[in-house]
């Protein structure tokens, strides 16, 4: 079984503050950390820590940051042989403020902007060897659409995490096997006219909506709407929780789990990730997830 991620690879510059500042406001910070991140890389690391054979596809710059991020991915078992090192373009950076059990993020794409259609054409062979591909939207949207279409034509399952959210073409939504927005992203994709339940029923077996402390909702193939409640956590840092959920969900689906049980596993993994600092550093192992599920 092979799972793959096409997406962003960033260095997160994370500041811990008393709270997230308002527009025009200055607040005191207590710590600053440089932590490997990027939604794509985070999701690949989440799956690797859970025991998956996972390959990362993306781009980094030919700078020290890029070298460090490649070494970090290799250190946790992520396959990196098809990541492209781009000359004269810096590696992507995310500026993250953490405060009051939440975060605010500004992303500077850098080399992630070079994950284009030409790059996908170069790696299509190994990409199409995947059993399932996980995508996000920190790379060019035309690339996201291109990969979804490519995988659909070759019967490779796709999990599309539409974050950061921008409107999606109807055909992209239809071709994706699973779509995993949070409530805010779902409103951008589909508007606010329908309730969450009504929206989920339009896409049974495809759409799941994460709802923070409430949990995650989905409509099963038989039309039943389910809410998988969140596990109570001692929150330290929410950065990467959504990426952990997406990675864990994708892995469980690849292993043949049904939608509800995959969400139950992923929800627990995501909650565990919030109990330690840093996106990737807080991600749990399969053993930790199973132990937490047994204790519920």
**What is the strand content?**
15-25%
CATH class: Alpha Beta
Shape, per Cα inertia axes = globular
Structural class: alpha/beta
Q: How many E-type strands?
A: 14
CATH homolog superfamily: Ribokinase
User: Segments where pLDDT lies below 50 for 5+ residues?
Assistant: none
Q: Taking all residues together, what is the mean pLDDT?
A: 94
Q: Which sequence of SSEs, written as H and E, runs from N to C?
A: EEEHEEHEEEHEHEHEHHEEEHHH
Rounded to an integer in angstroms, the radius of gyration calculated over CA atoms is 18 Å
Tally of alpha and pi helices: 10
Helix content: 25-40%
The assigned CATH architecture is 3-Layer(aba) Sandwich
Family: Belongs to the carbohydrate kinase pfkB family. Belongs to the carbohydrate kinase PfkB family. Ribokinase subfamily.
Subunit structure: Homodimer.
Pfam families: PfkB
Binding site for K(+): 237, 239, 273, 276, 278
Structure report:
This protein is α/β, with parallel strands linked by helices and 296 residues long. The chain has one domain (3-8, 39-91, 112-294): 3-Layer(aba) Sandwich (UDP-N-acetylmuramoyl-L-alanine:D-glutamate ligase). It has ten helices and 14 strands. A five-stranded parallel β-sheet has the order 4-1-9-10-11, with helices on both faces. The chain has a four-stranded mixed β-sheet with strand order 3-2-7-8. Strands 12-13-14 form a three-stranded antiparallel β-sheet, sandwiched between helices. The longest helix is centred in the C-terminal third of the chain and has 15 residues, at 259-273. The mean pLDDT is 94.
């Amino acid at each position: 079984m092979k799972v793959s991620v096409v997406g962003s690879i960033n260095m997160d510059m994370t500041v811990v503050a008393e709270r997230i500042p308002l527009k025009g406001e200055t607040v005191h910070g207590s710590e600053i950390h440089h932590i490997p991140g990027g939604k794509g890389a985070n999701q690949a690391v989440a799956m690797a820590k859970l025991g998956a054979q996972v390959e990362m596809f993306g781009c980094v710059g030919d700078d020290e940051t890029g070298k460090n991020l490649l070494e970090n991915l290799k250190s946790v078992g992520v396959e990196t042989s098809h990541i492209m090192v781009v000359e004269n373009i810096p590696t992507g950076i995310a500026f993250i403020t953490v405060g009051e059990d939440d975060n605010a993020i500004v992303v500077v794409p850098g080399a992630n902007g070079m994950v284009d259609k030409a790059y996908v054409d170069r790696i299509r062979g190994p990409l199409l060897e995947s059993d399932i591909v996980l995508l996000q939207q920190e790379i060019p949207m035309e690339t996201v659409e291109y990969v979804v279409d490519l995988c659909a034509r070759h019967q490779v399952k796709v999990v599309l995490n539409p974050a950061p959210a921008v409107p999606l073409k109807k055909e992209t939504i239809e071709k994706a096997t699973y779509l995993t927005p949070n409530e805010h992203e779902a409103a951008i994709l589909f508007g606010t006219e329908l309730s969450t339940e009504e929206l989920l029923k339009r896409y049974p077996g495809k759409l799941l909506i994460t709802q923070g402390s409430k949990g995650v909702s989905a409509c099963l193939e038989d039309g039943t709407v389910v809410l998988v409640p969140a596990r109570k956590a001692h929150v330290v840092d929410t950065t990467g929780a959504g990426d952990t959920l997406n990675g864990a969900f994708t892995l469980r689906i690849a292993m043949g789990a049904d939608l509800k049980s995959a969400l139950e596993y992923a929800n627990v993994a995501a909650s565990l990730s919030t109990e330690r600092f840093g996106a990737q550093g807080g991600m749990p192992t399969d053993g930790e997830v199973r132990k937490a599920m047994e204790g519920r």
